[in-house]
Amino acid sequence: MSTELEYSATLTGASFLFFEFKQVVSLKVQGLNEQEIREKVLSENLFQYQVSASLKRSIPSVIRRTSILDNTLCRLVLEHSLESGKIINLYAIMKTDRLYYEFMNEVIREKLESNTYLLEKKDLNLYFNSKAEQDEGIAGWTEQTVTKLKNVIQRILLESGVLKDKKTGELSRIMMDEQLKQHLIQIGDIAYVRAMGEV
Pfam families this protein is in (predicted)? Predict the structure, then answer.
């Protein structure tokens, strides 16, 4: 579970980064270690960024996400459907970001379980308010950081397929491949499967 992770605002510089995630998974499968991956991504600009500062900002998050994947998940990202890859990326984000995992588990899961397919602005506000009450670190974040995090949370939901439309806030259930679901359950990560609205 992500509870041993500290709350952090690193998502403000990361977002979904699916293209980048796939690139790094591919290098990991080739047997490169984290340092070699970092060097290769930078030297060959594998993320195809125009600004190297953006590259340096996103690399740590992507490497952190791929580091928690086992061989089966890496293979599924590279060989299975685009949807499966995106779901695995969403899982990796939750696994490495406590704030995001708890949002999925406390807000999205609850909505999907009660068949309420609508995410409203107030849901995000309530979530951040309750977290600020529970945690001094979050309480100390600037309004700008919180606003940015709310936007990133919505963007990740949109790009992973959980949010159908950012304007209307309409949610949809993701279609998790049975092999992927069983694997996550087998490795003891059923909590993440549930947080994505699957049972």
Answer: BrxA
